Amino acid sequence: MRTHQCACLCEADIGQDVALAGWMNSRRDHGGVIFIDLRDSSGIVQIVINPDQSESFSRAEQARNEFVLRVTGQVRLRPDGTENPGLSTGTIEVVADQLTILTRTEHLPFQIDDEDVNETLRLKHRYLDLRRTRMQRNLRLRHSLVRTIRHFLEARDFTEIETPMLTRSTPEGARDYLVPSRVHTGAFYAMPQSPQMFKQILVISGFERYYQIARCFRDEDLRADRQPEFTQLDLEMAFVEEADIMQLMEALFKLAFSELGDIKLPDTFPVLSYREAMKRYGTDRPDLRIALELVDLTDAMKDEEFQVFRRAANRKDGRVAALRVPDGAALTRQKIDAYTEFVGNYGAKGLAYIKVNSTAAGREGLQSPIVKFLSDAAIDSIIQLSNCQPGDIVFFGADAASTVNASLGALRNQLGADLGLVEEGWQPVWVVDFPLVEYDQESNRWQALHHPFTAPKEDALDEIQSDPGSVLSRAYDLVLNGVEIGGGSIRNHRLDVQRQIFRMLGLSEDSIDEKFGFLLTALSCGAPPHGGIAFGIDRIAALLAGESSIRDVIAFPKTQRAYCPLTDAPNAIATEQLNELELRVKTTASIMNAPVSENP
RNA sequence: GGGGCGGUAGUUCAGUUGGUUUAGAAUUCCGGCCUGUCAAGCCGGGGGUCGCGGGUUCAAGUCCCGUCCGUCCCGCCA
User: Fold this and answer.
1) Residues A295 and A417 both lie in one domain
2) Does nucleic acid strand B have an atom less than 7 angstroms from the CB of A528?
3) Which domain holds residue A407?
């Protein structure tokens, strides 16, 4: 079929007879001579067809973009002055002596060199979309990432082991994707949200170093960085502590980013406690490229007369905080209003601000609707603690700490983007010392922050029953440029501790044994101390590719309604299939909620 | 479940306070010319359920209501 790939030809091949095959990227028909850019997976080379090859010439006249062609001819140097420096093969061309059309195209739904095509259309005709340079590059980059990871772990004696895709539904965590069992009528498998329990059992089984590039499934609403099925690097190790895993993963990321993006990550990644991250950035996944930080004013505002601040400062779960933006006084009223609306998305009831004209003149130097409500002492505190300078603006949040953190944390990111305060580069950070559990008002019980197998700090065992909220866990998250790319923990290898935690989470003895009995029994048979971590391959690939959505590093992703425009999944199924499973679809659900498979 | 933005030739878009022609442009497509282009160029032609359904109006791509789809975000995601 072919002797060479298009872009593998170079000046050393001049004079050679070659055979090429590929897609017609573009055609320039001068009447007397036709140029064709022929594309294969290696790239593009220019074909020249002269009228003396009359049959091939007339076929070339018919050819259209994305026709599949085979060309034989000779490689030659391009005539002086006709080189194309924009092409890697721009100094040569192939003079065709025969051109055949292997496949014609019907009307193309879109041009593949069109950068801005409706995404649903791209997904519906993904075979065309994936031909584009950008998508070819993204998927090859993703492949290289996985290859690098495998190499790295193989060299360190990890064993890749597959775990079941049909497993059991667990009560904690995300909504499961369910698969009905035919053999066990009325019972369901669940698709794994992660291989968590299996990997612990593998380590208990004596595979001291396990890993897997694992597909995971969560039936929750989608985001730019969340798909219903996604890929994790999942790993687990016996006889380790936090530092062992963190150091190994730092080595892996330093290698991968240097190999794949020529990016040098810091020798040692900084570490932040959860508490400090929330205090300074309002989030447990701070983007350290943005120099802005929250300043806590809760203590300073406890006795303040200004109700909004005083009430928030004195409530048990309250917080008053400030976000100073250097040179932000130039923000217009209109923009401030837009930011007020923005923080409203996160539950903030308003967005107080002070524009700083001078710091020496006390209240006279400040310009703000709230200054008149503030005492001199409060104004001094604000100036001192925020360290504001003339020309700055200081934003305030005063509410439940969770609201203040969410709104000012999001505002910090938004201002960073809007004002160009995001530094170039790559800033990883470990976040550690998470609370083991948090209280869920809705279900009226404690819930694991990571998952219920996470070990508590060793010195906190006594508080698990007495004061669960104060217990810290042995969990760690890795955050890169504000993206949570992975997380893990040291696990409970002691049966009694694990039982105690289940109990604290409100599970009855019966329910513990029914749902987690197999794991507890395994723990009772000689479980080594162990821990692990999991990384979002899609998110890491998107970061490396410079894409803002993981859909652009997934070959066949779903839309925000979890729909696949290519295959029209999910779809209604035949009554016979339902009968075989002894299932019946509620009439209100059947047709009404089936996805509409019409063109966008 | 909630909020923002969007949906007009195959594609990407424009379309003003509701009314100038038959809803435009570029590109794709079709035909013609053209021997050094590389987004080739020049001439001509075809191509529209203005997402869908109601409503207001003498008149709706434009205003109102509903709905569907896409996207970003909140909730949700142990």
Assistant:
1) yes
2) no
3) 290-422
